[in-house]
């Protein structure tokens, strides 16, 4: 880093921003195969948290690739950079006192751990959507598995690109067994148990 770039400390701290919002900041990092339910569950959870007065923001994989990460493809190197950018963005939002929900396949354990290490202990909650690949492929909401099987999409997770199963996620949900409401209730209960929200 350039020696002329200096970190500035400001008068208002993360704890003050958190106190103002009346809840703790955190990142709920949804990971899993395409079609596992990441965006659906994260969206429903954000709606539930909004009803509870929790200050949130949802970072979605597809949406981020329309702006912040629109210059990136799907090679392993681009996937790493995609998660690095999202992680740094989520870190800023945690500093602002928000509960950040992120919906990204994020196939590599090292990248998920990198984001975990950006924030304080207890602020990173890995939510593994442990929905079987064959169920995800049956859903195929965007028709991506069909294209990947036909060779029209390269580097597709679960087909010709690896997905590393989370080693110790805080929460594991199989959306082929849980209803959407059950998944949301489980997540809200966890946040209350951890005293992130009241």
Q: Which H/E pattern describes the elements? A: HEHEHHEHEHHEH
Mean pLDDT: 92
Largest sheet: 5 strands, parallel
Shape assignment: globular
Quickly give the structural class.
alpha/beta
Catalytic activity: adenosine 5'-phosphosulfate + ATP = 3'-phosphoadenylyl sulfate + ADP + H(+)
Pathway: Sulfur metabolism; hydrogen sulfide biosynthesis; sulfite from sulfate: step 2/3
Function: Catalyzes the synthesis of activated sulfate.
Family: Belongs to the APS kinase family.
Provide a quick synopsis of the model:
The chain has 198 residues and is of the alpha/beta class. It has helices spanning 14-21, 38-51, 61-64, 76-95, 109-116, 133-139, 144-149, 180-193; strands spanning 26-31, 56-60, 99-103, 124-129, 171-173.
Write a structural description.
The protein is of the alpha/beta class and 198 residues long. Helix content is 41%, strand content 13%. The protein has eight helices and five strands, in the order H-E-H-E-H-H-E-H-E-H-H-E-H. The chain has helices at 14-21, 38-51, 61-64, 76-95, 109-116, 133-139, 144-149, 180-193, and strands spanning 26-31, 56-60, 99-103, 124-129, 171-173. The protein has a five-stranded parallel β-sheet with strand order 2-3-1-4-5, with helices on both faces. The N and C termini lie far apart (40 Å). The mean pLDDT is 92. The active site is at 106 (phosphoserine intermediate). Catalyzes the synthesis of activated sulfate. Residues 25-174 form the APS kinase domain. It catalyses: adenosine 5'-phosphosulfate + ATP = 3'-phosphoadenylyl sulfate + ADP + H(+).
């Amino acid at each position: 880093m350039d020696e002329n770039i200096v970190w500035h400390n400001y008068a208002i701290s993360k704890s003050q921003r958190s106190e103002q919002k009346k809840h703790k900041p955190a990142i709920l990092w949804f990971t899993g195969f395409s079609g596992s339910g990441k965006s659906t569950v994260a969206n429903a959870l954000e709606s539930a948290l909004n009803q509870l007065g929790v200050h949130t923001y949802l970072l979605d994989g597809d949406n981020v690739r329309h702006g912040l990460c629109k210059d990136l493809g799907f090679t392993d190197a681009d996937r790493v950079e995609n998660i690095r950018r999202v992680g740094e963005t989520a870190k800023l939002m945690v500093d602002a006192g928000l509960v950040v929900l992120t919906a990204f396949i994020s196939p590599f354990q090292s990248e998920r751990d990198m984001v975990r290490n950006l924030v304080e202990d207890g602020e990173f909650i890995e939510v593994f959507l442990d929905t079987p690949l064959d169920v995800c492929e049956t859903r195929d909401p965007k028709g991506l598995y069909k294209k990947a099987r036909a060779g029209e999409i390269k580097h597709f997770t679960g087909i010709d690109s690896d997905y590393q199963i989370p080693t110790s996620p805080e929460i594991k949900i199989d959306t082929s067994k849980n209803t959407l409401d059950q998944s949301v209730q489980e997540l809200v209960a966890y946040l209350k148990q951890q005293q992130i929200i009241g």
